[in-house]
Automatic annotation (TrEMBL):
<protein>
    <recommendedName>
        <fullName>tRNA/rRNA methyltransferase SpoU type domain-containing protein</fullName>
    </recommendedName>
</protein>
<feature type="domain" description="tRNA/rRNA methyltransferase SpoU type">
    <location>
        <begin position="38"/>
        <end position="162"/>
    </location>
</feature>
<comment type="similarity">
    <text>Belongs to the class IV-like SAM-binding methyltransferase superfamily. RNA methyltransferase TrmH family.</text>
</comment>
<dbReference type="GO" id="GO:0003723">
    <property type="term" value="F:RNA binding"/>
</dbReference>
<dbReference type="GO" id="GO:0009507">
    <property type="term" value="C:chloroplast"/>
</dbReference>
<dbReference type="InterPro" id="IPR047261">
    <property type="entry name" value="MRM1_MeTrfase_dom"/>
</dbReference>
<dbReference type="Pfam" id="PF00588">
    <property type="entry name" value="SpoU_methylase"/>
</dbReference>
<dbReference type="InterPro" id="IPR029028">
    <property type="entry name" value="Alpha/beta_knot_MTases"/>
</dbReference>
<dbReference type="InterPro" id="IPR029026">
    <property type="entry name" value="tRNA_m1G_MTases_N"/>
</dbReference>
<dbReference type="InterPro" id="IPR047182">
    <property type="entry name" value="MRM1"/>
</dbReference>
<dbReference type="InterPro" id="IPR001537">
    <property type="entry name" value="SpoU_MeTrfase"/>
</dbReference>
<keyword id="KW-0698">rRNA processing</keyword>
<keyword id="KW-0489">Methyltransferase</keyword>
<keyword id="KW-0808">Transferase</keyword>
<dbReference type="GO" id="GO:0016435">
    <property type="term" value="F:rRNA (guanine) methyltransferase activity"/>
</dbReference>
<keyword id="KW-0949">S-adenosyl-L-methionine</keyword>
Amino acid sequence: MDANNQPRQGLVLDASQLEMVKICELDPVSLEGNNGPLWVTLDKVTDPQNLAAIIRSSYFFGAAGVVLCSKNSAPLSGIVSKASAGSLELMELKVCKNMMQFLSQSVENGWRVLGGSISSHALPLNKVSAGIPTILVLGSEGTGLRPLVERSCTDLIRIPGNIPVDISVGSAEDAKTEVDICSGAELRSLFSRGELEC
């Protein structure tokens, strides 16, 4: 067992903590062809396992990077590193101090900001237009995006289900959606139509 009481499979490596680059905005991007890059931004994802799963999915589906908010994110711990299956070391990670400011300045630089939502008023994921540099914002496990972050998005998107039920009118517990699963579904959908590149 290591210092955090985690099994270590016979090997221990003493490594320095990952240094995350501070960022205030994403720079303007010139489009080549019909493709634009995709960044994943996380708002209050505090569960280390969910953070690791989102980083893993982001790497697997080819996102350009992941942006975390310095104030309200799970720390990049050994638990996150192990659960990310190595992708934590390979994914470009950045940190912002103020999520709303980061998003609004990136919008001014030509980025589309899509916020994951369960609202029936959100755009179904399969209706999202192609080719625009995109920031996908995912909220916390229990409450979703904070209202100010939601208002900083250019569009809200949802994963359409196969049942005729509006979960936005149910209780918060009924509406809880696993953010790590949703991130994979959203990334898969955005990349499978060939509209984004890393």
